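Dear Dr. V.,

Thank you for agreeing to look over these. As mentioned in my earlier message, I'm a first-year student in the group and I'm still getting used to reading structure tokens, so any feedback on how I've presented them would be very welcome. I ran two proteins. I've put each sequence directly above its structure. The first is here:
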Amino acid sequence: MNIHAYNVTIPKRDIDAIESARRLRKDHIGFNLKKDLEFSTRGLESYTFSRWEPVLYDAMVVAATVEFADKSVRRPPRGWARGINLRIPVHDPKRWEAPPVSNALHDALGFLTGDFWTITFVKRSGKASPPAQERLNLGIPTEAVIAYSEGMDSRAVAGIVGASLGDKLVRVRVGSNALDHPSHLGRKEPFATVPYKVKGHVSNRETSGRSRGFKFTVISGLAAYLAEAAKIFVPESGQGSLGPALVTVSHAYPDYRNHPLFTMRMERFLAALLRTPVRFEFPRIWNTKGQTLREYVDLGTGDAWMSTRSCWRNSQWISLDGKLRQCGACAACMLRRLSVHAAGLTEKPDVYVCKDMNAPSIREAVDPRFMKCNAAFEQYALGGVLHLDDLAAMAENDEQAAVRRQAVLLAPAMNFGADEVERRLSALLARHALEWKNYLKDLGPNSFVRKWTRTNQ
């Protein structure tokens, strides 16, 4: 079934999360909680605390069902939005259907993904098995948790904030890889991995993946609840948090996955569901990634940042001689390269598939052994360059009306007035523009990157 609005067809799909004992309704897509969702024994054990409740398990099932649905329904060729109806079994449907919970959930998901969600809850046919009874001891009271992956911002901000909080800061794994598995002297660590994995095979899957922000904030929120922490630190610096919403691509809906306006909505949802307030904070949102990296290195951390990973692409796309590289040209890699330059640091060229940024073309820039430098790869690289270039252009005088508009929207989530948010946002954009200008200046005159920018400096 499709919805037709303003001459744009909005695809609509009905998806049921089903237990083995519950039959799938006709014309509905099934998400089998026994076959398509895998809970990790090790992962759940790392979430085992005396405060464990069935609602925490249900929250993970809800996040997993949203992830499955997001992948299952392709966005239309024209337009963006989809209509997605979900039915999910939980232990206590009345708790989930209560207006403060349901309304906040729909508001957060709709704002994050740009879709029309309708979620109903039914009673589970049986109780879910609780995690193992072993309790992990945090040792001392936890003040905050930080969403942690193998990314550069995660490593740097955990180091910066951890320098003052010490053991009162607990890392929560939100990435799927184990490149930087948090452990210490062989001791079991809390929240060491995402405790579930969506296994269901989806043909012709949707790849925009906006629901990842929901998954990661839910996981972080549950960890904060279990650790009795009042704050969740989001490690993104300003370019990564605000940039994707400031500079959109074509007809795409703004990307709010790491944005304060989304986490503000998740605060409302988690507080209503768990009946405990929590606050998402962005300690580096008014700094560039380069400034954050420089401050981290100045702590005396040496080259620890070099083992981090920024690239969005997986091994299927950017493996070379059996070794996973970073592509070096997507928006995330370009921001990494810009930030390393701004921090006054360097990396070995073979970290990336795209090795030589001074080359006159993208095809000459990549490692000659790389066989996937096709038109799609080039367009991906062009998008990465233009994103940083367009964000730098936001610092120009003729963009001040747009900056003011963003500041007014952002102010309620930042506990500042619109004038102060505008001042800080303008300073962030000016700093990014300066770093981008200096990076381009240091590239060779024939660099393909310089050729793609609007100023062609």
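The second protein is here, in the same arrangement:
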Amino acid sequence: MNPPNLRKLIVLGIIISILFFGVGTVIGGTTIFLYDQSQLTGIKDQLNSLELKANTPIKAQNVSMTSVSIDTAVTSAVEQVSPAVVTVVATVPGGMGFFGIAPDQTVSGSGVIISQDGYIITNNHVVEGAKDIHVVLENGTQVPAKLISADPYGDLAVLKIGGTMPGVATLGNSDMLKPGETVAAIGSPLGDFKNTVTVGVISATGRSLDSGNGYLMEDMIQTDAAINEGNSGGPLINLAGQVIGINTMIVRGTGYGNTVAEGLGFAIPSNTARIVSEQIISKGSFARPNLGISWQMINPDIANRYGLPAQWGAFVTGVTSGGPGEKYGIQTDDIILRIGEDAIGENLSFVNALFRHQPGERVDIEVLRNGKDIHLSVILG
């Protein structure tokens, strides 16, 4: 390259450097930039400004929050009934065991206040055999309770407390329930989680369950609202805030390695609870009819094992002296086949057939005696 062209390129490079970087001198391939005092002062001011901004605290920003009240039919119903729900705590005396006398045992369940006079409905199995009972109100206050009476066959009991009631629940008409209807269970599962609410639906009505004591609990309400130990005796409510059932049991499955079931809870219909509680409150007890006999249920297995002439029935093992059975002709070794219009069978036990009648009612009882059918007219005790 000739010198003139080289000089032109050098001049052009200097001009470009000035445009982009300011005035400078190129020495030995290194560009040394030259700034006047005013430029340096401007740069210093910019740096100071950046430093001030870096050290300036960031102001907190205001966050807008909105509170929304969600009121549903479920929440309204629960708010209406919850003050009337109580935790029932009972002390069951210990007994003689294999290792000596067992200590007293504390059990707990739930209950619901049904009157301003302090009457409470709960399950019989919660307070059965208890020597001391008290209830815990929604606000945590403990109040002593008295057992008025109970109906073991219906698994219902009535307690009474004193003082001002924090709330009173209303019993609804359980005959109006339909599968799919939304319901809520309120109670104290495990005795610790007071006034717990679980929500589900009516799965079915008119269910029958084996009590394990020789009779069926009939006309039960089935629900998938979670019911756990401690919920027993608590209310099952509808969306109107009415008690339509008294929670009593759950079914987890048949055991023996079979599949475990969930969501099978059962409650006693409120109409049954009303009949039992009203009679206990007014008369001090609930009367069930009786025949004054001891008996053993017969099913096909028992009949085949002992060569009995009937596949279903109640085998009379004893007759109480002076009772209605003796008075109207029932004898030991009779097999009771029918009470009134109801035949004893796979789906109807002797007790359930008997309980379809009232004390003092005259009924026709069919018995099998020495291979012959005999009909007796008996007034129930």
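From my reading of the second output: The first helix runs from residue 3 to 21. Residues 74 and 239 are 6 Å apart (CA to CA). Does that match how you would interpret it?

Kind regards,
E.
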